[in-house]
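Weekly structure sync, notes
Attendees: PL (lead), two postdocs, one rotation student
Agenda item 3: pending single-chain targets
PL asked that the sequence for the first pending target be pasted directly into the notes so everyone works from the same version. It is reproduced below exactly as submitted, 145 residues in total.
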Amino acid sequence: MASSKRHWLVKSEPETYSYAQLQKDGMTNWNGVRNFQARNHLREFSPGDTVLVYHSGADKAVVGLAEVAGKPYPDPDTQKPGDWVQVDLVPLRRLSRPVALAEIRKTKALSTLPLLKQSQLSVMPVTAEHLAAILALAGSAERAR
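Predicted structure, written out during the meeting:
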């Protein structure tokens, strides 16, 4: 079990569940992940981890920050208990401006971001350097907690 805070990126189609909805709800359980690699990443989430929320679909941009509120727990919408997990996320803040995929692709500091190599993956790790670069592109003067 990792002792230090980690950073993640989760993807959602805004028509399905947007960052604005997360802000309105105040918390959500991030569920429905049915890709083995994404599930394995989700299992590594720890309370206090920072999460970049990426709108897929037409938006294709990182739009906000969230925080993991608790440990992963079983997703009840599965046939076998323990097969799939979910986590609770709370919104931290909307980015000063969305950071579009096109801009991410042009940024050297983000050339190793998993989003560019595994575009279909819905949950992925992000390094502290990737997080800092995305926040800088967004114009967010403050850092993630």
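Discussion points:
- Residues 7-138 form a domain with the ph1033 like fold fold (CATH 3.10.590.10).
- The chain has one domain: 7-138.
Action: rotation student to compare against the earlier draft before next sync.
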